[in-house]
Amino acid sequence: MKVSANVMYLDSPPAQSIPVILDSLPVPAIFEDREMPRRARLQIDLILLAIEALDLSGSEAILTTASELELQDIIKNRVNLWRLRSANPLRRFSQRRSLSVVEAKALVVIASYLARRMTVLIRQLLLAYQQLSEKQLSMEHHFRLSDYLDRFRKHFRSRMNPRRSGVIAYTSDEKLNDLAISLLGELLFCTGTAGMQRFWSSLFDGEI
Length: 208
Hints:
Blueprint: H1 38-54, H2 59-68, H3 78-85, H4 101-117, H5 119-134, H6 143-159, H7 165-168, H8 173-191, H9 195-202
């Protein structure tokens, strides 16, 4: 007599479930089985760099938000976060590994949530920048804006490889200030209705 039975292979790893929150970020068909493009990896890291310059808790806020959003299986700890961000080719210790679509989605979701929490501050800094520029005054006239720019410059210079051509373009304080302000605008872009989805879609501009 033949007996059929279901066999469980104990050595087989369980399929990793994708957090539901990531389903709101559609992937262009051409990238479904590919890693994230170079420009996207760079942009995600720069956005997180701007968030760290705004939030004194830095990477701890990113990890806390990952836990709150149940993304800790993707962003496990500080070392894991550093490895993901080191997919940015401009980093001093850039990793050969790229960034998977799921990892990129998790970082985009976290960045968008953190930006949303700082919407008022981001608006205040952008308004201060506009007013100082119109009056042709230096950024030092606004303490919070000056502090953000200073922290961003220090973060950028300590973490990016000065020999990379993409970094050489930002050797002056003025160029880095322009980049920091531009990133504030992108963070504000993330805070609006469907801002997270728009930020995600922008990462594929020119790639498809």
